[in-house]
Design brief:
Length: about 350
């Protein structure tokens, strides 16, 4: 078998460097990475990265295989490859070189660090407040029962926020754990929507918001996970109450579709609509990111952790459904969930 046959069969970008140090064969993956012009060039002018060239040079000298890294840039982002250099026995003393794309691993690592940084920051904010009030209670407020009451109230609220944050983090982790397993229970979404709306009635009352539920007279069955779907609609309705207009309306509607858009089959469309200020278009695409809030002060004041919609999106994905967010400034927002039916 010729080295060129190996190269074209390789599942990753691959080149054959002949005994003269010239690139004698490349596969389509490699030409996508470096361009077809590297063919027949010397590897020094073709690859250009000193670390990689050094390793090839050493492999040529001692005929030992090696691994190294190749860092590039493509489509405006940094890429990272594991490079394996394998000298061939005989065959004119050439060597094969393979590039394995590890960019996704590097990116996953970055996302994880960013997540940990966010979690730490979110936990530290209430913790700092609590620690500060402990100091005050020990010192200046030692003999001031009125101030003590006030500070203890704030401390309780901050502790409550930390609790909710931990609950949301656990719930996100659980959802991610089972994301690949399709839920199978037979769920009546109509009944579930009624319950979710009823559960939030006290919160709605506080903001003088009225909730209407339409299309839920008859059962509407889908394969689903009842707790998770409850979480989805509770969060959407709660958001509509919290971020919609004070004294406004939240409209929850259910429709049965023969052919749901985006689902290629029969499904349910559940829309939660408020008539609040709406959300600026530049935020729409980012709302389902963890900890993303449009107005973090306002959301924090309302006890929000910014994880609600991230959880919603994971749950909807697990149900093979779709989430669509539309909003017009001044008109309100509509959060629509499409769920495939049986
Ligand atoms: N109906 C809505 N109208 C206007 N803004 C909204 C609406 N729903 C969500 N948002 C914005 O999206 C952000 C993210 O919502 P999400 O549900 O993820 O977090 P949260 O409500 O702040 O916290 P949590 O749901 O964990 O209590 C909110 O902070 C808010 O700024
Ligand atoms: Mg929320």
């Amino acid at each position: 078998m010729l080295p060129a046959d190996f190269v074209s069969a390789a599942p990753v970008p691959c080149a054959y460097i002949d005994g003269e140090g010239r690139i004698a064969a490349i596969n389509p993956g490699l030409s996508a990475l470096f361009g077809t012009e590297v063919l027949r060039r010397h590897y020094i002018t073709a690859f250009r990265q000193p670390a990689l060239i050094d390793q090839i040079e050493s492999a040529v000298a001692d005929r030992q295989g090696r691994e190294t890294q190749y860092l590039g840039r493509a489509g405006g982002r940094d890429t990272s490859y594991k490079v394996t250099i394998s000298p061939l026995d005989g065959a004119g003393q050439g060597l094969l070189i393979f590039f394995e794309d590890l960019t996704h691993l590097a990116e996953a690592g970055e996302r994880r660090s960013e997540f940990v940084a966010n979690v730490s920051h979110e936990l530290r904010t209430p913790l700092t407040a609590i620690a500060g009030f402990i100091e005050t209670l020990r010192g200046p407020a030692r003999d001031d029962p009125e101030a003590q009451d006030r500070f203890l109230d704030i401390m309780a609220r901050e502790a409550g926020r930390m609790n909710r944050l931990v609950d949301d983090l656990l719930s996100l982790a659980r959802v991610e754990d089972v994301e690949r397993m399709r839920p199978e229970a037979d769920i009546d979404v109509a009944a579930l929507l009624h319950r979710a709306a009823a559960g939030l009635a006290p919160q709605a009352e506080k903001r003088n918001v009225s909730i209407t539920v339409t299309g839920c007279e008859a059962p509407a069955m889908v394969p689903g996970d009842p707790d998770q779907l409850t979480q989805v609609f509770s969060n959407l309705i709660e958001n509509a109450i919290k971020y919609g207009r004070e004294g406004g309306v939240v409209d929850v509607s259910l429709d049965r579709l023969e052919e749901a858009p985006l689902l290629r089959g029969p499904g349910l469309r559940i829309a939660v609509r408020d008539n609040g200020e709406g959300i600026d278009a530049r935020h729409l695409g980012r709302l389902t990111e963890r900890f993303y809030r449009v107005d973090s002060h306002r959301s924090r004041d309302m006890g929000g952790t910014g994880l609600g919609l991230a959880i919603v999106k994971h749950i909807v994905n697990r149900h093979r459904g779709r989430l669509r967010i539309e909003s017009e400034q001044g008109q309100g927002s509509v959060f629509t969930v499409y769920l495939p039916a049986w």
